[in-house]
């Protein structure tokens, strides 16, 4: 299945899907289409707070790389030495606010899933944040996980769709 065929279903958006929607890649059109389907109520979109955290962080680093011409390893050091400069980079604030308020995306509560996440991590060899995404999909009975991360293909009981 592909994104253009999705309707009347629930999906979990991995961080990379949001990143593609706010950048220019070959995946951007499909991811923008998905966000529009969520905005229009054709698809019910879900994330957890970890996705929001990862999205903000990655957008911030991308803006720092672009504007300061720093290497990825230097960008974190730049912020650690100059925490007051975070406000010089408005894109992560604007993009995250847009995700939170403009697309009707549901933020899932993951507090009750932490033990389940450990089980999923061990069983499928996933890092904790990915295991939390998989546990969220299973716990909330979501129809599909939308991601470009092949690691999720190891997880039984989850329908994975790539952009």
The helix/strand series, from N terminus to C terminus, equals EHHEHHHEHHEE
Which fold name corresponds to the CATH topology? Rossmann fold
Write the CATH architecture name.
3-Layer(aba) Sandwich
* Rg, Cα atoms, Å: 16 Å
Residues in helix, %:
40-55%
Structural class: alpha/beta
Widest β-sheet, arrangement of strands: 3-2-1-4-5
How would a textbook summarize the main sheet? 5 strands, parallel
Oligomer: single chain
CATH superfamily: 5'-nuclease
List the helices and strands and how they pair.
Blueprint: E1 10-13, H1 15-21, H2 28-39, E2 44-48, H3 49-68, H4 72-81, H5 91-102, E3 106-108, H6 114-124, H7 128-139, E4 144-146, E5 160-161
Parallel strand pairs: 1-2, 1-4, 2-3, 4-5
Helix pairs in contact: 1-2, 1-3, 3-5, 6-7
3D structure, described in words:
With 163 residues, this protein is α/β, with parallel strands linked by helices. The chain has one domain: 5'-nuclease (Rossmann fold). The chain is 52% helix and 10% strand. It has 7 helices and 5 strands; from the N terminus they run βααβαααβααββ. It has helices at residues 15-21, 28-39, 49-68, 72-81, 91-102, 114-124, 128-139, and strands spanning 10-13, 44-48, 106-108, 144-146, 160-161. Strands 3-2-1-4-5 form a 5-stranded parallel beta sheet, with helices on both faces. Helix 1 (15-21) packs across helix 2, helix 1 (15-21) packs across helix 3 (49-68) and helix 3 (49-68) packs antiparallel against helix 5. It is globular. The protein starts with 9 loop residues before the first strand and ends with a strand. The mean pLDDT is 95.
């Amino acid at each position: 299945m592909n994104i253009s065929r999705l309707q009347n279903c629930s999906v979990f958006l991995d961080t990379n899907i949001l990143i593609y929607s706010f950048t220019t890649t070959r995946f951007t059109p499909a991811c923008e289409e998905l966000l529009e389907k969520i905005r229009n109520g054709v698809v019910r979109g879900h994330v957890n707070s970890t996705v929001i955290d990862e999205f903000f962080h990655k957008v911030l680093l991308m803006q720092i790389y672009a504007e300061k011409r720093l290497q990825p390893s230097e960008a974190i050091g730049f912020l650690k030495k100059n925490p007051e400069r975070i406000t010089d980079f408005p894109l992560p604030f604007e993009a995250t606010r847009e995700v939170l308020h403009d697309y009707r995306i549901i933020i899932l509560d993951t507090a009750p899933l932490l033990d389940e996440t450990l089980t999923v991590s061990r069983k499928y060899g996933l890092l904790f944040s990915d295991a939390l995404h998989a546990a969220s999909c299973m716990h909330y009975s979501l129809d599909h996980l939308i991601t470009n991360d092949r690691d999720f293909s190891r997880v039984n009981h989850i329908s994975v769709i790539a952009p």
